[in-house]
Amino acid sequence: MTTLKTTTHDGENDDGDDLDVAADIDDDLDDDPEGSGCGGSNGIGDSLTLFFSFSIFCRSLMPRSEEGQLTIEKTPSYFITKDVPRRVYQFSKHLKLIVVVRDPVTRAISDYTQVASKKMDSRSFEEMVFVDNTTRIVDTQWSPVRIGVYAKHLKHWLQYFPLEQMHFVSGERLIENPADEMLKVQQFLGLRPVINHKHFYLKSRKGFPCILKPNRQKGSHPHCLGETKGRIHPMIDPSVIRRLRDFYKPFNIKFYRMVNQDFGWV
């Protein structure tokens, strides 16, 4: 059995959009006869204490894989948690890693939207993103900002896994053209290209693609994101957006060079 861990740049304050596009990959691969989902995010890599039983616990949660079948396990915070690469490597150095990334400015606003929707903090985005709104120094300790510095997180993973074992998916392109992105994922995993354009259609008023999941008894049935997904983002001062883009620009360029891919954020 080959165990595949699917990871994203999703954080604890995310509004679910990033996780949803990652979940699309997991759902889509569930439709592939050679792919088998683990049934959700287990958070195994988040706890040092829990990690000591990582191997036994993780394997017990995974479905039995037939010969030639891949099993997927995903936990959003894996990619951004510093010590997880070492622990994952100790579990298996042969894993293939899938990372879904999106424009860090957009994802920071998404994280804030989640916080605001739960009334966890009454401060504005502008108040939270800067250490001081007068000097406009970006608060790099604020989680929604820190998560988007992908080059820093990737550096920890490259200490243990070669780039050849990693595949980076554009969250924007996954929403705009899911079939093409899924073709790349299937090729990376060495799967037959079963999932294609006929598995996707746009029905959601929020602009997210729906997935046609085959059912042996009932035929294909649609799977769309829940109504709570894709919350409307607040209006942010354009000068704040420009300041954030300037802040992320060198990190984005470095990330592009590290993965040999341009995501169009600069």
From TrEMBL:
Lineage top rank: taxon:
Eukaryota
Q: What are the GO MF terms of this UniProt record?
A: [heparan sulfate]-glucosamine 3-sulfotransferase activity
Pfam families in alphabetical order: Sulfotransfer_1
PANTHER family to which the protein is assigned, alphabetical: HEPARAN SULFATE 3-O SULFOTRANSFERASE-B, ISOFORM A, HEPARAN SULFATE SULFOTRANSFERASE
Q: Where is the Sulfotransferase domain?
A: 90-249
Q: Which SUPFAM superfamilies match?
A: P-loop containing nucleoside triphosphate hydrolases (SSF52540)
Output this protein's name. Heparan sulfate glucosamine 3-O-sulfotransferase 3B1-like
Q: Looking at the record, which segments are called Disordered?
A: 1-41
- Residues that bind 3'-phosphoadenylyl sulfate: R102, S110, K229, G230, R231, I232, H233
Q: Does the keyword NADP apply?
A: no
Please name the source species. Answer: Octopus sinensis (East Asian common octopus)
Covalent S-S links between cysteines = C210-C224
